[in-house]
UniProtKB/TrEMBL annotation:
Listed Low complexity bias regions: 157-166
Gene Ontology MF terms in the entry: symporter activity
Membrane topology qualifier: Multi-pass membrane protein
The name this protein goes by in its record: Major facilitator superfamily (MFS) profile domain-containing protein
UniProt entry tagged with the keyword Kinase: no
Organism, scientific name: Homalodisca liturata
Length: 176
């Protein structure tokens, strides 16, 4: 379902940027917020759905569908920041994010004593929602969609304090 929904939403995100309705940075933050804060809201609803399986399934589905918006949020943001180093950035962020794949089962094992206890599961889902919320809050605060100066493979040499020497070198290389 995520895969299917991601196509029209990706197209929409690109059209909004191309038409000038949003900047790249604003677009990435909007879509990431839909993914994470929408998912967090659905997880909170899921935590308090009690024994109503229909509501639980609907909210869980909403969590999954809204999470596809990360493709238009932080996932593509690596290319915005640095096309030359996007694969390294993706490796760093995915590696860091996957630490939760190790920690989550350990956390659940510590919280859950009785698998049928809704209150214990509520704690797990509230903590998951909190993780979604805080991750997006960090992205909203610190995120950017602007090309970074360190994308240039010659970045350290461009930090010379004598700009005339830097221009001479650039002119000698044929750059204007």
């Amino acid at each position: 379902l995520m895969w299917i929904v991601s196509f029209p939403l990706s197209y929409t995100a690109d059209r909004l940027i191309i038409k000038g309705y949003t900047s790249v940075t604003v677009s990435r933050k909007i879509w990431n917020s839909v993914a994470h804060w929408g998912g967090a809201a659905a997880l909170l609803g899921f935590a308090f759905s009690g024994s109503n399986t229909t509501i639980a399934v609907v909210l869980y589905t909403i969590t999954i569908v809204t999470n596809c918006c990360v493709y238009m949020g932080f996932n593509v943001n690596h290319l915005d920041l640095s096309p030359n180093f996007a694969r390294i950035l993706m490796g760093i962020t995915n590696g860091t994010a996957n630490i939760t794949s190790i920690i989550a089962p350990l956390f659940v094992g510590q919280v859950i004593d009785n698998e049928r206890n809704i209150g214990e599961w509520r704690i797990v889902f509230i903590c998951s929602a909190l993780a979604f919320f805080l991750a997006n809050l960090a992205f909203m605060t610190l995120g950017s969609g602007e090309l970074q100066p360190w994308n240039d493979p010659n970045f350290p040499s461009s930090l010379r304090s004598d700009s005339s020497n830097s221009n001479e070198v650039d002119c000698e290389k044929g750059a204007v």
